[in-house]
Amino acid sequence: MIVDSSTVEADVTLAADVCVVGSGAGGSVVAAELVAGGKSVVVLEEGHYWTSEDFTQREEEMYPRLYRERGTKPTADYTVLVSQGRALGGSTRASFCLCFRTPRQILAHWAERFGLSDLAHEDLFPYFTRVEERLAVQDMGPAELNANNRVLKRGAERLGFRGRFLRHNRTDCLGCGYCAIGCAYDRKNDALTTYLAAASTGGARIVPDVHVEKVRHERGRVLGVTGRLAGTRTGKSYALRVEAPTVVLAAGALESPMLWFRSDLPDRQRLAGRSLHLHPYLVVAGVFDEPIAAWQGIPHSYLVDEFLNLDKSVEGGYLAMAASALPIATAALLPGLGRDHRRLMNRYARTAAIAFFLHDRTRGQIQADSRGQAMIEYRLNDDDKRDAMSAMRRGCELLFAAGAKSVVLPYNDLVELHRRPEIQVVEERGILANDPLFLSFHPQGTLPMGKEPKRSLLDSFGAAHGVTGLYVADASVFPTSVAVPPQISVMALATRTAERILRAS
Ligand SMILES: Cc1cc2nc3c(=O)[nH]c(=O)nc-3n(C[C@H](O)[C@H](O)[C@H](O)COP(=O)(O)OP(=O)(O)OC[C@H]3O[C@@H](n4cnc5c(N)ncnc54)[C@H](O)[C@@H]3O)c2cc1C
């Protein structure tokens, strides 16, 4: 059942076999699998329970509802704006539904470098399949290409770059294009409508509007959690306590390490929060003569993976996909001020946009700021800067090849190119702090798995080294960038974590 927080008028104490903190890709899967295995489960979620009826398709209303810090949490030097969901269902409520399995080469690298030899692609195959069946993952095809994706495909084909249709967890999509602010038609098979629904039906108690403050533990054993519940009718907050011998952290890669810090969980090597990868992306836009209307239709249906060659190197490279282009987000992200910005917005309907996602080697860090909030330190290293410059050059080539009349680069001031040779500007300007602007939907890696307790916090099942009953099942657990959009990787590993919890008890 999903608890209605407007009915709460006093402090609350609950008891369960397992308490899951966070209800996104990781938390929802663990909850559903454990309930199916006969466990009593409480799920605590900081965000609110929004249903598709609340999804107004208005950005100014939906970003504050669905996202942490309205969707734009900047890194300390403002180079990257990080978006994370904050709602029942977590970031999957805002997802674009792209489904990628963890690349085989990345898993082989984790085995070799971090001793995670039981996570080979063959080992994870049944978990990928199980998750994909549950989410009804299917191939996109020509019918799902909007004009923006057609531009990317055309440019890639003319230049001979490798590309393919993507796989998605959406069913009977109407192509309205508002995925990033919640599906008003419930056509996304996200965490809420799949796994959490099953967990709820199976008897899990799911409590939204709860900020979990601490994991309680004593002598190396977990006892439960404490937090505050926002009574949405009274406007007061109430103490909440859950007694549980097993706690699963699934608060996402920015907040799970914060819980680790606040709870004084053991970390002799000071590893928590330290190996943050953002899978950052930048957007290159092209202005065409014909209408593109990039805000309409399925935002991403085609992928160019020519520049991510994991057989050659498991580090570096990037993926290219069309970019979602809702009007407020586009206006906020387009460069230039005043007249320059207006000239661009006047051509919004004829503008195509390509996003380049870097498989980043940079390791950032999450720390608590003076108010106890997560602060993100992340400065692109030279290798990633080189990839970012290469991505901007490729963006320019792709868009001109597809017929763009001009190309706009993501610098703060307006840099609009009218011919391919002008792309040398990228070398002249380089990559500075906060110029160009990067975005991130995929933070990961802040509580990494590994065989060696000296170099990692969790084993390959997400069980904490040295704290009985504590598990992590979210995007924090990857020891490196996973190179592709992460939801399927998170869900497959979370399924395995749930299996381990069932076996352990
Ligand atoms: C706009 C957007 C689009 C995306 N599109 C795709 C895509 O198409 N394909 C893909 O593979 N990936 C996509 N992603 C990424 C994917 O959704 C995430 O990688 C994945 O959901 C991460 O799962 P998680 O369990 O780590 O965290 P989340 O799904 O973010 O869930 C964490 C939850 O924990 C809650 N929480 C945090 N702190 C606390 C606390 N102290 N107490 C209680 N609850 C707390 C949060 O509110 C949140 O709901 C997208 C992400 C965004 C933001």
Summarize the structure.
It is built from twelve helices and 23 strands. It is of the alpha/beta class.
Describe this structure in words.
By secondary structure, this protein is an alpha/beta fold. It has two domains: 5-66 and 89-134 and 189-273 and 445-504, FAD/NAD(P)-binding domain, CATH 3.50.50; 139-168 and 281-359 and 380-432, Cholesterol Oxidase, domain 2, CATH 3.30.410. It has twelve helices and 23 strands. The chain has helices at 25-36, 59-66, 104-114, 121-134, 147-159, 192-201, 252-262, 327-333, 338-346, 382-401, 425-429, 487-504; strands at 12-15, 18-21, 41-44, 73-74, 80-82, 138-139, 163-165, 167-168, 205-207, 210-218, 221-230, 237-243, 246-249, 281-287, 302-304, 318-322, 351-358, 365-368, 374-377, 406-408, 416-417, 438-440, 470-472. A seven-stranded antiparallel sheet has the order 7-15-16-17-14-20-21, covered by helices on one side. It has a five-stranded parallel sheet with strand order 9-3-2-13-23. A four-stranded mixed sheet has the order 1-12-11-10. The two termini are 24 Å apart. The model has no long low-confidence stretch (mean pLDDT 96). The structure holds flavin-adenine dinucleotide. Residues 21-27, 44-47, 83-87, 90-92, 94-98, 180, 210-212, 250-253, 255, 259, 441-442, 474-475, 485-487, 490 line the site of flavin-adenine dinucleotide.
